[in-house]
Write a structure and sequence with these properties.
single chain, alpha+beta, 19 strands, elongated
């Protein structure tokens, strides 16, 4: 009914509910459709029916016979409703146009009636850091209007009072950035599966009268490798009219053969701390279930000739080389090794990849779990950086091997020294080939023979005119006894 109203009818309807009556017809239609969808009380519906019946009752009385309602044969609509046409206004002369579906597709999805030909819709992947509150514009294909490489596709939409209130009352993530945002998402036009965000070449986004910043390219340090561009939702909130006024968005894009679709969403942006808290609330796996998984991993395989008696797990995070605080892994991962959820979420908040740092396979947020068994082990085992799981599901710490003392690589025990046994001063600590030397005592000799040997050495010392040269012990010729 509303789609067939004239300007005067629309103004009467909007004036009845206290809305603004100024503007072009397509703006009045937008407000009326929003009224029907969000604030349609029995009084409003009664007024719409009254205006509808009054208009067509006059037509019937003028012609003298009842007439079946037909939409007008021609309608001038804004270019944004005609798949982003670059022409200022387009005249549609087909009498059988499905107006509710036409307006609903391009005006915030407000159409009540489905289109006659149901086509599969483009779907975008869910982003962990963005919670969708409303869909302002369903993914709509960017259709080139000519053979030019640079195309422009405009669209118009308006926020409801509830949506404006949500944005204004939301907290600030940083200066000038609200947590509730209106974002633009662009992807390939592919209905086979949910699509990731993908920007077309030469993209530029203009909101009302100002251009919006688009994420730039990551610099590449590798020669011959093209820099990559992070394709993320584009925040338009700071350039929009936070009122009942309509907003105009113009997407400039390069037409190089690939087809793209754009969508507008009202979202709430989350932080890594909020995602971590949510994961701790719903994502902890019970220690007994983790223990059963360990047993399953170490269960004897009758077809295998190798029996696994244990598996080692490091308590150090592979991301930051620090001790784990919140051990986490994806349910789809086949390994028991965990990484730290705190640093994993922080890294994906800055540069979303969602790849497991252990096996380099996808580890999306909705597949993450916190290992309850390893969390318990971390509190009980504070002096080890590695543990070993055994076949029965138990575990034992593996302490790091400390470096041995600074003794020679082949140490020789010295049972006596020159001060105690009356021997000559100890040989130079640096022997041939840089190896240390030491006195060797023959333990097979008795005490009397050792005394005789000492006397003989004293006599030899008296006979020598000069100082006796220091003896060296060469490992190449074998060990020489102290006698």
């Amino acid at each position: 009914m509303v789609m067939s109203f004239r300007v005067s009818d629309l103004q009467m309807l909007l004036g009845f509910v206290g809305r603004s009556k100024s503007g072009l017809k397509h703006e009045l239609v937008t407000r009326a459709l929003q009224l029907v969808q969000f604030d349609c009380s029995p009084e409003v519906f009664k007024k719409i029916k009254e205006l509808y019946e009054t208009r067509y009752a006059k037509k019937s009385s003028e012609s003298g016979q009842p007439q079946q309602h037909r939409p007008p044969e021609a309608l001038s609509i804004h270019s944004s409703y005609d798949r982003g046409s670059t022409v200022a206004r387009t005249s549609l002369s087909t009498p059988n146009i499905d107006y509710p579906a036409l307006y609903g597709k391009y005006l915030n999805g407000l159409g009540r009636l489905p289109p006659k030909v149901v086509k599969p819709e483009v779907r975008l992947v869910k982003l962990p850091f963005y919670t969708t509150l409303d869909e302002l514009l369903k993914p709509t294909e960017l259709v080139p209007q000519n053979n030019e490489k640079l195309q422009e596709s405009p669209c118009i939409f308006a926020l409801t009072p509830r949506q404006v209130e949500l944005i204004r009352n939301s907290r600030e993530l940083q200066a000038g950035v609200k947590s509730v945002q209106v974002v633009l998402r662009i992807c390939y036009t592919d209905t086979s599966s949910p699509q990731e965000d993908q920007y077309p070449p030469n993209i530029a986004v203009k909101v009302n009268h100002s251009y919006c910043s688009v994420p730039g390219y990551y610099p590449s340090n590798k020669p011959g490798v093209e820099p990559k561009r992070p394709c993320r939702p584009i925040n338009l909130t700071h350039l929009m009219y936070l009122s009942a006024a309509t907003n105009r968005i113009t997407v400039t894009w390069g037409n190089y053969g690939k087809s793209y679709s754009v969508g507008l969403y009202l979202v709430r942006q989350m932080t890594s701390a909020e995602l971590l808290q949510r994961l701790k609330t719903i994502g902890i796996k019970h220690p007994e279930l983790c223990k059963a998984l360990v047993k399953e991993k170490l269960r004897l395989d009758p077809d295998s000739e190798i029996a696994t008696t244990g598996v080692r797990v490091s308590l150090i995070c592979p991301l930051v080389k620090m001790r784990l605080s919140v051990p986490c892994r994806a349910e789809t991962c086949a390994h028991l090794q965990c990484f730290d959820a705190v640093f994993y979420l922080q890294m994906n908040e800055k540069k979303p990849t969602w790849m497991c740092p252990v096996c380099d396979k996808p580890a999306p947020y909705d597949q993450l779990i916190i290992d309850g068994l390893l969390s318990k082990i971390l509190t009980e085992c504070e002096d080890a950086d590695e543990i070993e799981f055994l076949v029965d599901g138990s575990w034992c710490p593996i302490k790091a091997e400390k470096e041995r003392s600074c003794s020679p690589q082949c140490p020789i025990l010295v049972l006596g020294s020159s001060e105690v046994n009356g021997l000559l001063p100890a040989p130079n600590s640096n022997g041939e080939n840089g190896k240390a030397t030491a006195d060797v005592v023959d333990l097979t000799l008795d005490s009397s023979s050792s005394e005789e040997e000492e006397e003989e050495e004293e006599e030899d010392d008296d006979d020598d005119e000069g100082p006796q040269p220091k003896r060296r012990c060469s490992y190449e010729k074998g060990l020489v006894s102290a006698c």
